[in-house]
Design a protein that fits this description.
This protein has 53 residues and is an alpha+beta fold. It is built from 2 helices and 3 strands, in the order αββαβ. A 3-stranded antiparallel beta sheet has the order 2-1-3. InterPro entries: Znf_B-box (IPR000315).
């Protein structure tokens, strides 16, 4: 997948995990695990799957 990017949060933690979504609240790419965390925040963040962008 040549167009794949990396999860911003995981990169800050030293990991290179491929993104699956965009968090419009944080304005950054997120992986599957981070997307779940963002959706559980209070208030929940708007997470958009990359296939919908």
């Amino acid at each position: 997948m040549a167009d794949s990017k990396l999860c911003a949060g995981c990169q800050r933690g030293g990991e290179d995990i491929t993104d699956v979504a965009w968090c419009s609240d944080c304005r950054e790419l997120v992986c599957k695990e981070c997307a779940r965390v963002h959706e559980k925040m209070s208030p929940p963040h708007k997470v958009v799957p990359m296939k919908e962008i």
